[in-house]
Amino acid sequence: MDLCHVPAVREKGWYLALMAPNVKGPNYAWLDPSRLYCHPQGLQDCVADLLQPFQGDPIDMVAGIDAMGFILGAAAAAVLRKGFLAIRKAGHLCVQTLVQPYTDYSGREKMMEVRTDAILPGLRILLVDQWVETGGTMRAAIQLVERLGGVVAGVAAICIEDSEGGRWIREHYKCSHCVPPGLQPRFDRHQ
Question: According to the model, what pLDDT value does residue 2 have?
Answer without folding.
Answer: 67
